[in-house]
DNA sequence: TAGATTGTTAATCGATTAACAATC
DNA sequence: TAGATTGTTAATCGATTAACAATC
């Protein structure tokens, strides 16, 4: 199967879930696992796991299951977390600052190497080990460093402009926390916090009526 | 249409997107808008918007479009942001602290009324206007206040326990930032930041091969 | 060998889109 | 009236699941 056919988005997201689950199993000392067991942990169907994996190859042994350590390694390569990623953060507000110190990211090989903000009163201040730089220094910074991923954590009205700048600098992907749809050709992942609250509000409202 | 039939999840999420887009249009002083215009702003199909709205009623005028102000009000009621929501945050780490100060939430009527942490060394410290309380005080707090939504921003291994506690206290919904699937019957919205980075990494890796 | 579980196909389910009559 | 756009149905597309032969 292993071609570069289009992989459905839900599949991509689940790969990360499998990866996480496998790591937990590994920590528990489990050597072999059946799709059925992963499925029950994640609350999905075992056939879905097997189907998802089949996009990339055959990793299991019939009658036995999957070797946990081996499948972790395979998923690492497939997802791309077998390497380190250099990340910068644009916007040193609440969200931006939190991400700089967020241990989850470093653990997963996403290394934050720079923080930028347009507010000169923030420039020079430290967040963890990093010093906030003015956004105008980004261009220079990009010449000296390989930046692969940028996080957009700026106010809504600045997000599109920043995106265009990032695209020019050759950044490869964006994680967008601003509540706008970005117009760009590079891959974007949206993390829309207020939207999640709204979705939850809706669901709570419906709970009673069932 | 307006029954309490099941609304597909993607529809619910898009309602929030429509709401946001309509507010922008309102700020721009636009009175009437066609589904085609909303669609082009959001990068989706106009028939999808009309279909989504049709789950809840008829809000447009044929040949004319939708009255922006009116549709905003309707969506407010449908989504449930016509009222204020009381929110508490469990876990005063990076993410938890950032959310307390996050202006986006208050603006959307999600009012954070308490922050809790298990780490006694954090208790008593201030985040914005709120004082971090010890998690053991939660029970007491819940008696004196109506808490509707809880944010879980604790380490993975504490998340399930916290969830069960919250369920007992009668909390109505959870926004979960911990990287685990919570087993609970109350509605949960997942915000999985590291998963988004992984998904992005995968997409970047595929970009080249297309 | 008997039992278990994979990888894959085909069937099912659900969500998106096109099309168009209704109507402003 | 002529033009525009809705609300809704039916067609299409895509994703999930069941089923099972292959095989460890």
Can I get a quick summary?
By secondary structure, chain A is of the alpha/beta class. Chain A has helices spanning 9-27, 35-42, 46-54, 68-79, 94-101, 103-107, 138-144, 156-168, 193-208, and strands at 32-33, 60-61, 65-67, 85-90, 110-117, 126-127, 130-134, 149-152, 173-176, 188-190.
Helix content of chain A: 40-55%
| CATH architecture classification name of the largest domain in chain A | 3-Layer(aba) Sandwich
What's the SSE pattern of chain A?
HEHHEEHEHHEEEHEHEEH
CATH domain class of the largest domain in chain A: Alpha Beta
CATH superfamily of the largest domain in chain A: NAD(P)-binding Rossmann-like Domain
Mean pLDDT of chain A: 95
Question: Total domains of chain A, how many?
Answer: 2
Stated plainly, the CATH topology of the largest domain in chain A is called Rossmann fold
Number of helices of chain A: 9
Largest interface: A-B, 63 and 63 residues
Q: Main sheet of chain A? A: 7 strands, mixed
* Low-confidence runs of at least 5 consecutive residues of chain A: none
**Record field, number of beta strands of chain A:** 10
Shape of chain A: globular
Please state the oligomeric state of the protein chains shown.
homodimer
Gyration radius from CA atoms of chain A, angstroms: 20 Å
């Amino acid at each position: 199967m292993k071609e570069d056919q289009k992989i459905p988005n839900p599949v991509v997201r689940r790969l990360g879930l499998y990866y996480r689950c496998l790591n937990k199993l590994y920590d528990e000392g489990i050597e072999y696992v059946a799709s059925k067991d992963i499925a029950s942990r994640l609350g999905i169907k075992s056939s879905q796991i097997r189907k998802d994996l089949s996009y990339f190859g055959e990793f299991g042994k019939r009658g036995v299951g999957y070797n946990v350590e081996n499948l972790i390694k395979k998923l690492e390569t497939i997802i791309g977390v077998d390497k380190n990623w250099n990340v910068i953060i644009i916007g040193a507000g609440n969200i931006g600052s939190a991400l700089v110190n967020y241990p989850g990211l470093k653990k997963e090989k996403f290394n934050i190497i720079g923080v930028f903000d347009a507010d000169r009163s923030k420039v020079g201040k430290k967040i963890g080990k990093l010093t906030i730089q003015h956004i105008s220094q980004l261009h220079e910074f990009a010449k000296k460093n390989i930046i692969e991923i940028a996080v957009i954590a700026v106010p809504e009205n600045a997000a599109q402009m920043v995106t265009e700048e990032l695209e020019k600098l050759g950044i490869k992907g964006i994680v967008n926390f601003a509540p706008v749809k970005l117009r760009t050709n590079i891959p974007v992942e949206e993390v829309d916090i207020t939207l999640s609250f709204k979705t939850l509000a809706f669901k709570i409202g419906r709970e009673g009526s069932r």
